[in-house]
Amino acid sequence: MRKLGIVPLASTVIPPRSGRSSRTVRSRRALGAALAAVLAIGLSACAPDPVSESFLSGENTGYVAADGAIVEIPVADRGETVAFGGVTEDGETFDSADLAGQVTVVNFWYAGCAPCRVEAEDLESVWQQYEDQGVSFVGINTRDQADTAKAFSEEFGVTYPSLIDVDTAEAKLAFAEAVPIAATPTTLVLDKQGRVAARIIGPIDGTSILSTLVKDALAEKS
């Protein structure tokens, strides 16, 4: 009986005709590059937004550089009054109910946030401008303990109080339904009923815009 031999796989390959091999390789490489480009475009369309990217990277969590997005909410579209509270850096209990009837500016910040440092002087300036006109300012520190927050206030001359929210997130959660805080810094203007009337994402970039938003809220009828 005749035995069947096993023919090596390499011996079954027919050598290409002269001149076709290099062209085929080049064509396949070109096709591969084109497919890679299409894939890259598709992936970029699904890429995380800047807030997600900063969160996922773990660096300067939540801060979106040079955003400055400003949103004003018409009176008819404002939600319910936001009730919030907590303990300040001086250990005092704060309740937003004590600010009823006032326009309130709420600034979310933390000491290691570079743009928070840049905007601190402007926030204080607007606060000084409207302090005697039925306007209150409240900071909400999302990452620091009291000593760090106090050192920041002393360094940058901030005189309005800040709630220390790092352990409980009580104040931040109170705003979650009305306007989720996705970036730091974020500044909110609350109307006389305690509803969110305007939002600035990112540093306030000078005093004029925030001053105008506060003035507009003051001019509204109670």
UniProtKB/TrEMBL annotation:
Keywords: Cytochrome c-type biogenesis, Disulfide bond, Redox-active center, Signal-anchor, Transmembrane. The keyword Transmembrane applies. It is found in: Cell envelope. Residues 73-222 form the Thioredoxin domain. One of its GO terms (molecular function) is oxidoreductase activity. One of its GO terms (cellular component) is cell envelope. This is Peroxiredoxin. It comes from Microbacterium saperdae.
